[in-house]
Amino acid sequence: MPTRYRERLAERSQGHLVVTIDRDQCLLLYPLPDWEEIERKLMRLPTLNVQARRLQRLMVGHATELELDGHGRLLLPPQLREFAGMTREAMLIGQGTRFELWDEARWNERRDEWLQDAELPAQLSAELESLSL
């Protein structure tokens, strides 16, 4: 974990994080208190809804609590490393209240795909049309 985030994570979650999978074949890292809120929201979804149940199975079912060691490192379970195709080189992408952890080659490939897609004219949702950057 980069030094600039360690102090904040220590304050927010005493270095306790939860890692789970994402549909984009990366891993999501949440400070424990943030994950607990997300887990509550996920578990309130209607279980008779097939998509909601699938999301619960994937995100909650793969959720694993981790702790930063004294050097700010995390030991990822082998099955999660395998899911994300993690090799030696990784990219940690900050996303507000969570991080995405990518295999570096996969990240570069996906980023380039998204940049190419962004050049195509597309319909933006109302939320995106109202956003000013």
Describe how the helices and strands are arranged.
Blueprint: H1 3-13, E1 16-21, E2 27-31, H2 32-43, H3 50-60, E3 64-67, H4 78-83, E4 90-95, E5 98-103, H5 104-118, H6 126-129
Antiparallel strand pairs: 1-2, 1-3, 2-5, 4-5
Description:
This protein is of the alpha+beta class. The protein has a single domain (3-121), classed as Transcriptional regulator MraZ domain (Chemotaxis protein chec), CATH 3.40.1550.20. Helices cover 44% and strands 20% of the residues. The protein has six helices and five strands; from the N terminus they run αββααβαββαα. Strands 3-1-2-5-4 form a five-stranded antiparallel sheet. Strand 1 and strand 2 (27-31) form a beta hairpin. It is globular and about 45 Å long. It starts with a helix and ends with a helix. The mean pLDDT is 87.
